[in-house]
Amino acid sequence: MNARMPALYIGHGAPPLLDDPTWSGQLAAWAADLPRPKAILIVSAHWESAPVSLTASGAPLVYDFGGFDPKYYRMTYATPDATALAQRIAGLMPPSEPVHQHASRGLDHGAWVPLKIMYPAGDVPVLQMSLPTHDPVRLMKLGERLRPLRDEGVLIIGSGFLTHGLPYLTSWRLDAEAPGWSSDFDAWAADALAHGDVDELANYRANAPGMPYAHPTVEHYTPLFVTLGAATDPEEPGIQVIDGFWLGLSKRSLQVA
Known about the structure:
By secondary structure, this protein is α/β, with parallel strands linked by helices. The chain has a single domain, classed as 3-Layer(aba) Sandwich (Protocatechuate 4,5-dioxygenase, Chain B). It contains eight helices and ten strands. A six-stranded mixed beta sheet has the order 5-2-6-1-10-7, with helices on both faces. Strands 3-4 form a two-stranded parallel sheet. Helix 4 packs across helix 8.
């Protein structure tokens, strides 16, 4: 039998992450410490679509960003065919949660930027799944349905950013000091994650300090619940592998068993 793969929640940064030796080094070291996946299923903040949808194997990357160096728009990340994984995912979903196989959509930057660092050879099949809702309960159930994939060598990743108040940043330096709303939200989430307090994490709108500045929109936070749902025991504290800030935003990232 295969050992069960962990599930991850990662901060994915923006294309300049590829040139940041500190954070990219942390992601690369993390990937090197993981069992080698047979395939990767990643849910990115940058694809909000219902019903649940999957990318097309071999489709061009999505360059869903603007104002960066032209080199980032020429980057590629070709990976092996993932049709079998798509079929397996569709088979795990109940009739109430049908899966749409997108004919032409490729990986967006919330997927290909971190994966290009973690698995630079591009030799692992990758599928991206859309984020169909922001309801923590529904996303936990989605993660739970995906959990059997972990016993089949599939690495499940929720890709977002633990704080993402871009409109409220006053500095665009990578090493900028974290604003209070970012550091307060990060400390609150770190404590809840350390205690496996899923209810507290799910009640972030009411309970988390720094809201709504930390997440004026919540798509970078809610992939966390897919990861927690895919955990063997969502209330068992995971390992907070990466912490610290980038542009003043929390890059705290989690690994669950």
